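As noted in the main text, all predictions were made from sequence alone. Below is one such record, for L-idonate 5-dehydrogenase.
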Amino acid sequence: MNHTLTCKACFVHGKKTIKIEDRQLTYTDNDVLVKIEAGGICGSDIHYYQEGHAGLSVLKHPMVICHEFTGSIAKAPTGSNLKVGQKVVINPSQPCNQCEFCLQGKQNQCPNMRFMGSAQYNPHNHGGFSQYVVVSENQCFTYDERMSAQIMTFTEPTTVAIHAVNVAGSLVGKRVLVIGAGPIGGLIIAAAKASGAVEIVAADISERCRKIAIAMGADLAIAPLDEASFEAFSINKGYFDVTFEASGATSAIASTVAATRANGVVVQVGMGASPVQYPVAQMLAKELTWKGSFRFIDEFAVAVKWLEKGIINPQPLISSEFDYQQVEQALITATDKNISSKVIVTFFD
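Prediction:
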């Protein structure tokens, strides 16, 4: 049986055009209806608002943005383990679970992936900046109701950070460099510390971000233009066992080779838009392993537990909070990296 509900949602129509409009939701008895409480603004949301696209995903019709969000169960299927009123965080990843990659446990490589808040496909997959959303039961992860919705909005980016650490391999006793101390870099710092790294150095051009990196668990935070520090870390074939590059900046990507010790690992997390002149000869001579880390696979439940237990505390990354009626101001604020790390949008009554 089909049901309908009308609610308010934040639709990006194109470049610098976002409107709060009525949205009609249709759902069946097998769907889960979630009342949204809070969501975090990610880089892709900013791109959709500022440019009308995020990478190759171009807006072709108005779309509800956000893929980092939490809420409470408003309706659950009969016989479900979910109960009305339970607090849940939503996994925005919807792999097909039928292709060769999914069947091999590599869902993040699924060519048929539907990701909430993405314009990759037409019609687009709407996201979480909506008073209500309709999702499947397997996308819902319950959490301790004593946790704030704002903290739990970090589940998806925390999952990205944990996946990057898993890609790197064991960090026990390792020296780690994290380049880029934005939200993902900050969460990687915390995840690396929780995973046994004995020394963590962060590098970021922003003094504000360097202070946040220390709050997230870094032992030292340096400026990329501090040539003396980078030279010290580059002598004798490098210093760091593992380097996470989370900025995507062309010069930063190239710098990973010098700072990473021979036989070390570089994990590329940041997506750079420009071509990179990568020092292949030096990478080859040092026998570095260069790995990409993309989204996540099955780390979502782990991220929920780590946030619940305080293993990762993302509070230092929250720079401001806005009601959804102020979503445009929230996006403008999130765009200004001089003042913002993670901006939260709330849907509390």
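The chain has eleven helices and 20 strands. The longest strand covers residues 2-14. These features were considered when defining construct boundaries for the mutagenesis experiments described in Section 2.9.
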